[in-house]
UniProtKB/TrEMBL annotation:
GO terms for molecular function: hydrolase activity; nuclease activity; transferase activity. Residues 266-327 form the TRAM domain. The chain crosses the membrane at residues 6-24, 36-55, 61-81, 93-114. Its cofactor is Mg(2+). The lineage of its organism: Bacteria, Pseudomonadati, Verrucomicrobiota, Opitutia, Opitutales. It comes from the Bacteria. This is Twitching motility protein PilT. Keywords: Hydrolase, Magnesium, Membrane, Nuclease, Transferase, Transmembrane, Transmembrane helix.
Length: 337
């Protein structure tokens, strides 16, 4: 138990017990039941503290929904309780009826508000207070974008000026991947954490890490989409399925793979380029090299020059799953060294 809260809880329980003792002065029949009243008051205090402990980690969005429900329920019970229906009735029955109305109305309104809490935008972390007239653009970053690593280079180059929102549950997922006993997952997680460190070092990059969990949903993708909706932010990812899910929910998404494809230079037939040949091709005398963007270049007659950088002339360009496949031939059959 939190040492700071412990004395507060003890004092609260004692005050509840004292209230039970003092209330006997206002009720005639309870003059001789002071110990019972004290016990009831203390029990109510203990019940409240236990409820507080059980609600540890309860989201601020849920608290806002409960507050809204209690407010509406109280208003409804007050309006009904003060209506002409109860004029002239016995005061004791009016009190009991109003109490029942209050309990039922607040309960129903609170439950309804909690069930629809995802529809409310009443939580402080999701309200942006910007001193300027123009709102700051926000981009929610998912785990795949951090592991990919290219986000750091994009931000460093100044192509992404929006504030980056990296939710706490994304960092937790990244840490879980880094702590994996599987070597591949461990390496991916470590790379993601290193990229996060690189982002923090970049000047003029605003990184925000919301501490509150957005919802009780277990699916991280659903949390990301919901958070982007709540903050009216874009979603940065390399996960195709997450991008489609975001699109379905009306969230604008940014895909680093799409950006990389868009930045690939257009290749023209007959154009000359330099490429390093790294391995043999499938056909006789063919060699294979790669452009800086990862496009494969198949060079006819280049096998004797494997390991060298040569000048080639583009003969055809075909689309492929990885982007483009370029077919070329040696230019004057001469290597650059």
């Amino acid at each position: 138990m939190n040492r700071t809260l412990l004395p507060i809880r003890i004092v609260f329980i004692l005050l509840c017990a004292a209230a039970g003792w003092l209330i006997c002065y206002t009720i005639e029949d309870w003059d001789k039941r002071r110990m019972l009243a004290t016990f009831i008051g203390g029990s109510i205090g203990i019940l409240a503290v236990l409820t507080d402990v059980m609600l540890k980690g309860f989201s601020l969005r849920g608290l806002s929904a409960i507050t809204f429900g209690l407010g509406v329920g109280t208003l409804i019970s007050y309006l009904i309780g003060t209506s002409p229906l109860f004029r002239g009735a016995d005061a004791q029955y009016v009190y009991l009826t109003q109490l029942a109305l209050f309990l039922v109305a607040t309960y129903l309104c609170t439950v309804i508000a909690l069930r629809g809490k995802d529809e409310f935008n009443l939580v402080i972390p999701y309200v942006r207070f910007v001193p300027q007239e123009v709102e700051t653009s926000l981009v929610v970053v998912d785990t795949s974008a951090l592991i990919d690593g290219r986000i750091a280079k994009v931000c460093e180059a100044g192509f992404l000026s929006a504030a980056l929102v990296i939710p706490r549950f994304v960092l937790d997922e990244l840490q879980a991947v880094a702590d994996s006993s599987e070597p591949t997952k461990h390496a991916r997680g470590r790379r993601g954490l290193e990229v996060l460190g690189e982002l923090r070092k970049i000047k003029n990059i605003d990184i925000r890490i919301p501490e509150s969990d957005v919802t009780k949903k277990q699916d991280v993708d659903a949390k990301l989409v919901f958070l982007a909706q709540s903050m009216k932010a874009k979603l940065l990812t390399t996960d195709f399925n997450l991008a489609k899910m975001a699109e379905f929910h009306g969230v604008h998404w940014l895909n680093l793979n799409s950006l990389a494809r868009s930045l690939r230079p257009e290749l023209i037939l007959g154009e000359q380029l330099e490429v390093e040949l790294v391995k043999a091709g499938k056909e006789d005398l063919q060699a294979v090299g790669y452009l800086e963007d990862g496009s494969m270049v198949v060079v006819q007659g280049g096998r004797p020059h494997i390991g060298q950088r040569v000048t080639v002339e583009i003969s055809s360009v075909l689309p492929s799953a990885g982007g483009k496949m370029v077919f070329a031939r040696m230019l004057n059959d001469r290597a650059l060294g």
